[in-house]
TrEMBL record:
<dbReference type="Pfam" id="PF13145">
    <property type="entry name" value="Rotamase_2"/>
</dbReference>
<dbReference type="GO" id="GO:0003755">
    <property type="term" value="F:peptidyl-prolyl cis-trans isomerase activity"/>
</dbReference>
<dbReference type="InterPro" id="IPR046357">
    <property type="entry name" value="PPIase_dom_sf"/>
</dbReference>
<feature type="domain" description="PpiC">
    <location>
        <begin position="147"/>
        <end position="246"/>
    </location>
</feature>
<dbReference type="InterPro" id="IPR027304">
    <property type="entry name" value="Trigger_fact/SurA_dom_sf"/>
</dbReference>
<keyword id="KW-0413">Isomerase</keyword>
<comment type="similarity">
    <text>Belongs to the PpiC/parvulin rotamase family.</text>
</comment>
<dbReference type="InterPro" id="IPR000297">
    <property type="entry name" value="PPIase_PpiC"/>
</dbReference>
<feature type="signal peptide">
    <location>
        <begin position="1"/>
        <end position="32"/>
    </location>
</feature>
<dbReference type="InterPro" id="IPR050245">
    <property type="entry name" value="PrsA_foldase"/>
</dbReference>
<protein>
    <submittedName>
        <fullName>Peptidylprolyl isomerase</fullName>
    </submittedName>
</protein>
<keyword id="KW-0732">Signal</keyword>
<keyword id="KW-0697">Rotamase</keyword>
Length: 304
């Protein structure tokens, strides 16, 4: 079993790559009476446009975006800004400039080619089988070895301003820590935490590795046991009341835990390999002398 080129689908990557795809998807969607999700002046992004974009993503990326509303909002805001710029450019006839028109034609051709290649290189529905998944897992165990991680929830109290403001924030955090030890931490976080993103999830910040933690929080959770609630932890931005939910020791993640990611990666690699093989076959079919090397040298000389 050869090594797979395993890749984690990160939010940041999804954002940069997704913006370009979103632009193409939204630009071709029908407006009609479709519900408007966002508006900026005359520019709009509709529900149908957004759903078209999301359906065009692979399942892991779509799930990450669906779970990260803030990122999805940034994608929509970026599209609104681009629509505004597009309207200004069109008003100035920018698309009629010869170099811009050439780039637009090339971009359009690339979209057609990519879509066609995707259609003819799709992995079989049954791929990979359980045996193939197990073999890939066994051959790539290093990729599934994770560092020690802590599953933490927090109640955050911002502390900015003068000494009096910081003192009040500390007192509020102390009160919240006492309430949290004898009550419903998640409900208290939803009601009182000043960090909106984790507050919406009952303070849950998810799994965090040692390397990802800021030093003050790392020092606090290192001595905690699951279920414990910390005293307020001071950081540059404020006070964190922490609850340790779980601890995951460093080691190899079991196949059951990484199965979905591994399957998605194997399917992506299968389809990429199939597309490359098809391209090579097309070039070979044209003969070994498809490239005029003398003409190619002339091009290089012309642009130097």
């Amino acid at each position: 079993m050869r090594k797979l080129q395993l890749r984690h689908i990160r939010v940041g990557v999804a954002f940069h790559a997704g913006t370009a795809v979103l632009c193409a998807a939204l630009a071709t969607s029908a407006m009609g009476a479709d519900k408007v999700v966002a508006r900026s002046g005359s520019a709009t992004v509709t529900q149908d446009e957004l759903e078209t974009f999301l359906r065009g993503l692979d399942a892991p990326a779509r799930q990450r975006l669906a779970a990260d509303k803030a990122l999805l909002e940034r994608l929509v805001q970026g599209r609104l800004a681009q629509k505004t710029v597009l309207a200004e450019a069109e008003a100035k006839g920018w698309a009629k400039k010869p170099d811009v028109a050439a780039m637009a034609r090339d971009a359009g051709q690339q979209v057609v080619v990519r879509s066609y290649l995707e259609s003819i290189s799709q992995a079989p529905q049954a791929y990979p089988s359980d045996a193939e998944l197990q073999a890939a897992y066994d051959a790539n165990k290093a990729a599934f070895t994770a560092p020690k991680a802590w599953h933490i929830a927090q109640i955050f109290v911002a502390a900015t301003g003068d000494d009096a403001a910081v003192t009040k924030a500390r007192k509020d955090a102390d009160d919240l820590a006492r309430q949290a030890r004898g009550g419903d931490f998640a409900a208290l976080a939803r009601a009182r935490s000043q960090e909106p993103r984790s507050a919406a999830s009952g303070g849950d910040t998810g799994w965090v590795s040692e390397a990802e933690m800021i030093p003050e929080i790392r020092a606090a959770v290192a001595g905690m046991k699951p279920g414990a609630v910390s005293d307020p932890v001071r950081t540059p931005n404020g006070f964190h009341v922490l609850k340790l939910l779980e601890v995951r020791e460093a080691g190899l993640r079991p196949l059951a835990e990484v199965r979905d990611r591994l399957r998605a990666t194997m399917r992506q690699q299968y389809e990429a390999d199939a597309a490359q093989q098809y391209l090579r076959q097309q070039v070979s079919a044209q003969g070994a002398n498809a490239i005029d090397k003398a003409a190619l040298d002339s091009v290089i000389s012309a642009v130097r």
